[in-house]
Amino acid sequence: MSPPEVIRYVEAARRGDHEAFEQLVRLTYHDTYTLAFRLTGNEEDARDVVQETYLRTYRSIGRFRGDSQFSTWLYRITANCAASVSARSARHRHAELGPDTPVLDLRADHDPAQHVDASTLRARLELAIAELPPRLRQVIVLRDVYELPHDQIAAELGITESAAKVRLHRARRMLRDRLFPGDQRHAI
Amino acid sequence: MPYEGQSCRDIVSEMLDETSVVSLAHRQHVEQCSKCRHELDAQRAFRSQVRVLRTEHIEPPADLLAQLYADLRRCAGSPSRRLARLVRVAPYVGGVLAAGAAGAVLAGRTRRTRFGIL
Lengths: 188, 118
Known about the structure:
Order of helices and strands of chain B: HHHHH
Largest sheet of chain B: none
Low-confidence stretches of chain B: none
Largest sheet of chain A: none
Shape of chain A: elongated
Oligomer: heterodimer
Number of helices of chain B: 5
Number of strands of chain A: 0
Helix content of chain B: over 70%
Distance between the termini of chain A: 38 Å
Mean pLDDT of chain B: 79
Largest interface: A-B, 47 and 43 residues
Mean pLDDT of chain A: 83
Distance between the termini of chain B: 92 Å
Strand content of chain A: under 5%
Order of helices and strands of chain A: HHHHHHHHH
Low-confidence stretches of chain A: 94-110
């Protein structure tokens, strides 16, 4: 549910109130930047994505009908901008993890997830997600972190729904394999 | 029903995704197959860990907000934005002008009728 403050500003911005739109930016840009950073994996691209996202939102807010939450609408625009930026960016900083990469070696005897301190795991998760190939990173962030439906993810990334599901499955596997390389006993 | 490899992975993905409709046969398979059940449990646990990231913010660069405001002000002042606003209000302005003109015509006719000009 969008906070009442956001709803008020959205209504005013739809009527062309520039200051209301600036207030919307102030209230949402941390969240938008976080998503942009997770989608792109680097600060420079995340910054471009956020700038482009708010320009597109500003130009099209008159068309926002409130069928979904404003935050969901903003996530979709952010995802679309991130896909464009990633496509034209020649600086994908994705580095494949080598077998000696120490930071992701979280081997544990029984259930690794329960043996790792939560904050440490979160930090490592962030890192492991950032190091996924961009195409896989985008779907896992949008689906598993932000819970966007498959059809919306597919639409914003310009791929089919089944392609989005395949990428998601691969991303989940890769992420788990990288975080818990020792936990292969029951892999199917 | 026995499944293997890719089929098992697809079934687990279906089960994991609460928005998918999962067939009875697939549900029964996961109930009976210890590997699939374990995989599903592990994936659910892992996803809940991933989902926690939703509440964690990454601090944006200090100058980003000022940059966004500057972008928006430039955009607000750009000809395309002004044109877009004009296009948006044009129907209303046109409607008001048309209504005014129709009113003036009607008033003129009424006046001419009253004075027997027609």
